[in-house]
Specification:
alpha/beta, FAD/NAD(P)-binding domain, 2 domains, 5-stranded parallel β-sheet, about 30% helix, globular, disordered N terminus, binds flavin-adenine dinucleotide
Length: about 450
Amino acid sequence: MTESAAEPKNTKHVVIVGGGFAGLHCARKVAADPNIRVTLLDKHNYQQFQPLFYQVATSLLSASNIAFNLRSTLIRHPNVDVKLVEVVSVDLNSRTVHTAQGAQYQGDYLVLAAGSEANFFNTPGAVEHTYPLYSLHNAESLRSRILAMLESADADHSLIDKGALNFVIVGAGPTGTEMSGAFADVLQSWKQRKAVHKAFWDLPLDRAQVYLVDAGHAVLSAFSTKAQEYATRTLTQRGVQIRLHTKVEEVGDGHVTLSDGTRILTRTVIWAGGLKASSISGLKTGRGGRIDVEADLTVPGVPGVYALGDFANISGKDGQPLPQLGSVAQQSGNWCAKNILLDVAGKPSEAFRYLDKGIMAMIGRDAAVAEVGEHRHEVEGAIAFAAWLGVHAALLTSTMAKIEAFMEWAWWYFGGARDDIVLDRSEELQVNWNEDTEEMADVSKQPQTAGQRRSA
Ligand SMILES: Cc1cc2nc3c(=O)[nH]c(=O)nc-3n(C[C@H](O)[C@H](O)[C@H](O)COP(=O)(O)OP(=O)(O)OC[C@H]3O[C@@H](n4cnc5c(N)ncnc54)[C@H](O)[C@@H]3O)c2cc1C
């Protein structure tokens, strides 16, 4: 049992699971009341800024630009205690959570904000052989794998025929589109004799191929037709091969098989194909494995228990669940804190109202799409690109992080070399280049899975 010692009788205890956008905003706001004590539980000791994972994966930003220590972030709140633990189960009725480390935490209020994880939709081989992009660890592993492929192909050009420079991205939503655009920028920089080309001057990077595969009918399906067409046109012009109406049937150690029968040799498959709520037992889940909530963000039938952000199905004005976005998470975190403070004051809670500021996606240098506000005023190209940089810098947690990220972006924009190209995870170099033939010869062979290498 992990509970602190004596405390004033009127102090209320709020236990928050997850220090992401939702949990952190809730913690900060509720802790402004000195009569409240907060315990924030997270399996990482940092907040990770997921929208910029793909920039870490493509060496544009370093990990320290997008991960922020939770204790430092909350240093001004002495009534918040951060614990590095993994929550494995919940008892809703007693508002108690149990951790993998054997501890339990019970609060007057329990806030569930554990976010999402990759959903592989039972695609054979996807867990073992793809790179998801849902944690900092994932992003760093992917960066090392990309660098490992460049290094391997540079040392032995014949590996290009075995797929060393083929990169397959599964899912053409914002994450997959942004990732493809970043790859396309690397290819562009080769054409302009910049960045990666300067470092890998002996590597025929013109042979690199980037595939963006999606079972749906469009790139960026949540955006307008005009934005979809702009994104498709821009990516195609920059060399990305887009395969729509196409499912990934199976992923192997050295290939991916598509529903139209195409087999692409590749050692780097990036999974941006879907997400589900983080797995914690003891919860009744609804659509997307998420927790359905009432209008005031409480879990039905259990007053004092809230679910927020990506972890929850929060209804919008039209009754449909709101999308998994940073802005939904932030606003629900603040609103939950407000409702807890109302409850502590003996007042009724209020129904959550989401202020829709719009959606945006980066497609590459000077190219982005933005649909601003509830009425989706459309902007694309360089203006949307500038807006994207501004919005994401503003969302970063500390002033120093904002300045550093801006400096990195400016450096990139004006053609500076990416120097965060240290291959620090040597396991990503370990590739069996004869996989297909050996796989047929010895089916009992059990290689270490990508999931084991990249568990985070
Ligand atoms: C690659 C990517 C790109 C994205 N791009 C954008 C974008 O451009 N714009 C946008 O608005 N949104 C974007 N999103 C979505 C946005 O990042 C999420 O909606 C937002 O992070 C959700 O916040 P959250 O607090 O609900 O969850 P998270 O931010 O995921 O935080 C959950 C926290 O819970 C912790 N946790 C999970 N399980 C446990 C456990 N069992 N025990 C203890 N702790 C646990 C995690 O460590 C994490 O710190 C993107 C997401 C991804 C993955």
